[in-house]
Write a structure and sequence with these properties.
By secondary structure, the chain is mainly alpha-helical. It has one domain (3-57). Helices cover 86% and strands 0% of the residues. It has two helices and no strands. Helix 1 packs antiparallel against helix 2 (25-57). It is elongated. Keywords: Membrane, Transmembrane, Transmembrane helix. The chain crosses the membrane at residues 6-22, 29-56.
Length: 58
């Protein structure tokens, strides 16, 4: 598990649980934070995939 995944689990899970209990603008704000964290994780995976494929071809 990479450091980015650890940060997502340690920070994202409490935010996800908080989504169950907050209402209104706070729920929207937490949702945007979680979406941003997931986008960063996805970008890290895509970048590492392309870097690995670049190393294998050169």
């Amino acid at each position: 598990m990479s450091y980015l995944e650890n940060i997502l689990v340690c920070i994202g899970v409490p935010f996800l649980l908080a989504l169950l209990f907050v209402k209104g603008k706070q729920k929207e704000y937490l949702g945007f934070i979680l979406c941003g964290m997931c986008c960063c994780l996805l970008a890290a995976y895509v970048t590492s995939f392309f870097m690995a494929s670049y190393v294998l071809t050169h």
